[in-house]
Write a sequence for this structure.
């Protein structure tokens, strides 16, 4: 159609730009940051559950064991807390009322995921760590759907 | 739902040809789904010579603190002090909720159509 041809010719010509930009962070929200932290917490949960205490009386082994145990626990706590922070930022900064209209279970999903972060932090519970991962996958799906993008969910390990 | 921007008619193209529209290329995603990145819009610089901008109009405006930047936003509210709240159609976009309300003089014209 002639009009389309002319329209394209004008559109492809040199034109000034008009900005329809977002805030600095808006383009770089991504549930991946929460997923990485949750995955680290899951990994630490698995490692803690796999630890076997050394024989009584082996002081050196006990020191190494307790050191390892503490380090895994510390990392688990930190990463579970980080996962929660990342989720809360997504929830309260990225998501807007229109998203809630499209995904009425959004608040419930985030609330549940944040609660799971607390559980993973406090406990050494493989089920809860896996449930947290599943909740983050659900958030991943909603998040990218709101951006009309098909982004495959993946894990690092 | 936000009102869409119609595709340019012959009338719009002629108006552009005779200097009554200006063409701009949209950069960024803050006005999606109304205007996708790469959309080319016509705006009427004389649209508000007689009547002020109305709520719902998609407008081209100066940026409040980036002198070189022109922005495209939708008029969301006219405040009691006569200033305009411009919002992004994309809920993730930056707008008057972040950079503040806009005096009328900053609003350069109304987006009338899009070439694509």
């Amino acid at each position: 159609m002639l009009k389309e041809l002319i329209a394209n010719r004008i559109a492809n010509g040199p034109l000034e730009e008009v900005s329809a930009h977002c805030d600095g962070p808006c383009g770089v929200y991504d549930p991946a940051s929460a997923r990485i932290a949750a995955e680290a917490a899951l990994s630490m949960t698995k490692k803690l559950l796999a630890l076997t205490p050394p024989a009584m009386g082996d002081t050196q082994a006990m020191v190494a064991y307790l050191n390892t145990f503490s380090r895994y626990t510390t990392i688990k706590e930190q990463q579970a807390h980080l996962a929660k922070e990342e989720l809360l930022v997504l929830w309260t900064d990225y998501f807007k009322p229109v998203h809630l209209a499209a995904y009425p279970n959004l608040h419930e999903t985030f609330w549940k995921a944040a609660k799971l972060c607390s559980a993973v932090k406090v406990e050494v519970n493989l089920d809860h760590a896996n449930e947290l991962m599943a909740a983050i996958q659900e958030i991943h799906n909603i998040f990218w759907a709101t951006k009309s993008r098909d982004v495959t969910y993946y894990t690092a390990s | 739902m936000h009102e869409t921007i119609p595709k340019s008619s012959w009338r719009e193209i002629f108006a552009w040809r005779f200097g009554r529209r200006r063409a701009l290329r949209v950069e960024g995603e803050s006005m999606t789904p109304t205007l996708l990145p790469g959309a080319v819009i016509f705006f009427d610089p004389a649209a508000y010579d007689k009547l002020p901008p109305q709520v719902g109009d998609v407008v081209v405006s100066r940026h409040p603190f980036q002198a070189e930047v022109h922005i495209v936003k939708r008029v969301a509210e006219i405040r009691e002090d006569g200033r305009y709240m411009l919002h992004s159609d994309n809920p993730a976009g930056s707008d008057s909720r972040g950079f503040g309300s806009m005096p009328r003089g900053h609003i350069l014209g109304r987006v009338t159509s899009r070439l694509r």
